[in-house]
Structures are given as structure tokens and as C-alpha cells.
Amino acid sequence: MSAITARRTSPRRTPRVGGRLERALGYDGVIARLLLGAFDWFTVSASFLAALVPLVTFTTLVGWQLTHLALWLGALTLLPLYSALEALLAAGAVLLEGSVRPGRAYWVAFAKATRRRWWAGLIPSAAVLLLGYDLAIVGTGAGALLAGSVVLVVGGILAIALASTAPVGEAGAHPLAQVAEAAYRIVRRPHVALTWPLLAGAILVASSLPVVGGMLWLFGPALFGVAAQVCNRALGFAPAVPGSDRAEAHS
Predict the structure, then answer these.
(1) pLDDT tens per residue, range 188-232
(2) pTM over 0.90
(3) 39 with 16: CB under 8 angstroms?
(4) Residue 56, CB-side half-sphere exposure with 13 Å CA sphere
(5) What CA–CA distances, in Å, run from 234 to 151, 168, 227, 229, 246?
(6) Distance between alpha carbon 64 and the CA centroid of its chain, in Å?
(7) For residues 2 and 210, what is the distance between their CA atoms, to the nearest angstrom?
(8) Which residues contact 117 (CB under 8 A, 6 or more apart)?
(9) Residue 247's CB: how many other CB atoms inside 10 A?
């Protein structure tokens, strides 16, 4: 009787085990989806780091020096930074929603930001020039370094605010109107703006850790884009879906 029972139950167990292995190891299985998701995050991070190639090249070959040529060359290398930041937040939204091809979304957003908000790329360059000439004229004292750090942080927050409001901003609006809108949102929700440098600082500190630091350099930018989108949506800085009821409530 036990032999008959074993014969009846054994064919049923084999397909179950095989089905579980197929779901786990198949082309559309759990492991494959995890690997594809990790590759999407890596693609977004690598795309953002590609925009930093001019800056890294300048820092390696020339270096930051208190001369006119070095300051202006360094400012020029920062021109693609805003477009890369806006594209990073757009790709972060794609990753957060689980959509496909976030790398393509990054470069589409990069092209749109370069075409529509080319003037926003002057913000980090102007902040670096102001800091450089301040250090050259005043000196490298504690007060000058503190003032320069404040300028960099404020410029970075304003750039992220512009990038966060880009999906709902009017493409043909005057640059000053867009800057005023971003500043107004910062004043209304300053706690959201303060989370951005904290997120960036936490990722940079974690990237300096011995074992996992190198890996975070490859996934850190995408992590920042997703984390910034989570904070913006959860705390009401920018609408989750442009044109929705939630978007109208936040506008």
C-alpha cells in the first residue's frame, strides 16, 4: 500500500520542484529579474558618472588652482552637471516606478535639460567661480572656507530644486520665473531641501568604506536619484505624476 502511495505522489512532486527551479533560474525568473534590475541601476549610475568625465580629467591634468585659467576651465567642466542631475532624477523616477529602460530615459532627459534649461548649467559654474575668486582675494581662512561651503551647498540645493520641478515646470517659462518657483518650493518645504545634501553626504561617506565602498561608487548616483524622488514625493516637494490630482494639489 505504501509503494502504491509513493508511486502516486512522486510524479506530482517532481513537476513542483522543476517549476520552482524554472521560476528561479529561468530567463524571466527571480534571479534574472534581480540581475536586470541591478544592471539598470548600474547603467543609470554609469551614465551620470560619464557626465563627470570632463571634471575628473580637469582635476587630474590641471587641478584646482587659484589662477584665472584654472578657475574658468574648472567652471567649464561643470556645465554638464545640471543636465546630468536632472536626468538622474528622471531616471530615478523610472527606477522607482519599475519601468523599463531607465538608461534611455536618462539620456532623453539629459538632452531635454540641455536644450530647455541650458542656462541652469551656469549655476554650479557660477558657484565655483564665486568660491574660487573669494579664496583668491580673501584667502584660505576659516571664514572664507565657510562662506564658500555655504555657497556650494546653496547652489547645489537650488540646482536639485530646479531639477525636481522640471517635470511640472513650463518649458517656455522665463529662467527667473523657474528659479523663483524652485526657491518658493524650498522656502515652503525647507526640510525636504535639507535631505538632499544629507543623502549625498551619506552616500559619499559610505563610498569611502573599505569593502563596499567601491561598489557604492557604481550604484551610488542611482541610489541618490531614487532616494531623492522618494523624499520629494513623500514630503510633497514635487508631484509624483504630472497632471494628476496630486500634482494639482502640490502646485
Answers:
(1) 888 888 899 899 989 888 888 887 777 788 888 999 999 999 998
(2) no
(3) no
(4) 6
(5) 27, 17, 10, 8, 11
(6) 25
(7) 58
(8) 82, 83, 86, 162, 166, 175, 178
(9) 15
| Number of Cβ within a 10 Å radius of residue 200 | 18
CA atoms within 13 A on the CB side of 8: 5
What is the dihedral angle through the alpha carbons of 163, 165, 169, 171, rounded to the nearest 10 degrees?
A: 10
CA distance 67 to 48: 28
Q: Where are the domains of the chain?
A: 15-250
Closest CA to 74 of 146, 120, 127, 141: 127
Angstrom distance (rounded) from CA 73 to CA 64: 9
Q: Angle at CA 134, nearest 5°, toward 132 and 137? A: 110
- SS3 label, residue 98: coil
List helix spans (H) across the chain: 2-25, 30-50, 53-61, 68-77, 81-97, 102-116, 122-138, 142-164, 175-188, 190-207, 213-234, 245-250
Q: Report how far residue 177's alpha carbon sits from residue 188's, in angstroms, rounded to the nearest whole number.
A: 16
Q: What is the pLDDT of residues 163-192, one digit of tens each?
A: 888 765 455 678 888 888 888 888 888 888
133-136 contacts, C-beta under 8 A, 24 or more apart: 133/71, 135/66, 136/66, 136/71
